[in-house]
Structure formats: structure tokens, C-alpha cells
Amino acid sequence: MTGIDADIDALRGLHQALVRYRHAQREVAARGEDEIRLARAALEAKASYWRAQLELGQAGLGDCQDRAAQAAEDGAVDCSGYARAVEQSREQLERIRRWQQRIDAEASEFGGTASRFRDLLEAGLPRVEEHVLALVASLEAARRVQAPASRP
Q1: 3-70 vs 125-144: helix axis angle to the nearest 10?
Q2: Per-residue pLDDT, 103
Q3: Cβ–Cβ contacts within 10 Å for residue 82, how many?
Q4: 75-119: pLDDT as tens digits
Q5: Mean pLDDT of 34-47
Q6: Hey, what domains does the chain have and what are their CATH numbers?
């Protein structure tokens, strides 16, 4: 094998590696976006659950307070359990809201970087791949050209 043949083989290997890399990194970027969507959906599901719990707790607390007002004379109605449930629901919703803000901020930062990376994968790497193929074609053409015989 000549030096030019080795160069051609090396460039073909580089081209194949670049193509594999581009496809693998597309999948990585897509998985990152999927993970963000899943995190947002999970947080929204939890928020929905805790909003429903808050509504139920507030309704129960309202009913309890009405019963307590009607029975004001004997003071036998304790609404503290309802009040704790309402407070717990509010706290959970606040935690979820903070996580949602954090996810949104991180996703925004990721989105900018991911967008530039996708541009590289979709525009930059294909140009490099084409350039490598052009180098291969040039070397193959050079290999076909016969050097003139040397004279004694």
C-alpha cells in the first residue's frame, strides 16, 4: 500500500466517523429536549394534583368554618386539620413553582447551546464531510496520474 492509499483510507475512515458522530449527536440533542419536556410535564402533573388538593382543602376548611360558626357557643369544632392541609398544599405548589422556574431557566440556557450545536450538526459537519470526500476524490485522481518515467 502506498502513502497515498493510506491517506485515502484514513480520510474515508474520518468521513465515516464524522457521519456516525453527527447521527449520534442528533440523538443526544433530541434526548435532552425530551428530558426537558418530561420534567415539565411531571411538574405540571404534580402542580395539577396539588391545585386539586388545595381546592378540596379550602372547600373542607370553608365547610368546617361554617360549622364552627354555627356551633360557636360550644366551640367543639376543630378546623386545624383542614387549615394544615390547605397550608401544605400551598407549600407544595410554591415548591413546584420554584422548580418550574428553575427548569425553565436551565432549559432556556440549554436551548441556546443546543440550537448552536444543531446548526453545527446540520450545516457545519456536512460541509466538513463534503470537504473530506473532495479530498478523497482529489487524492484518487492524483493516484491515477502516472508520474513520468525517470531518464538515466
Answers
A1: 170
A2: 94
A3: 19
A4: 688 999 999 999 999 999 999 999 999 999 999 988 888 888 888
A5: 95
A6: 3-141 (1.10.287)
Neighbours of 89 (CB within 10 A): 20
Alpha carbon of 68 to those of 80, 83, 116: distances in Å?
A: 11, 13, 62
Cα(58)–Cα(52) distance, rounded to whole angstroms? 10
* Whether the Cβ atoms of residue 8 and residue 134 lie closer than 8 Å to each other: no
Residues 131, 129: Cα–Cα separation, whole Å: 5
Look up the pTM and report it: 0.67
Sequence-separated (6 or more) residues with CB below 8 Å from residue 22: 121, 125, 126, 129
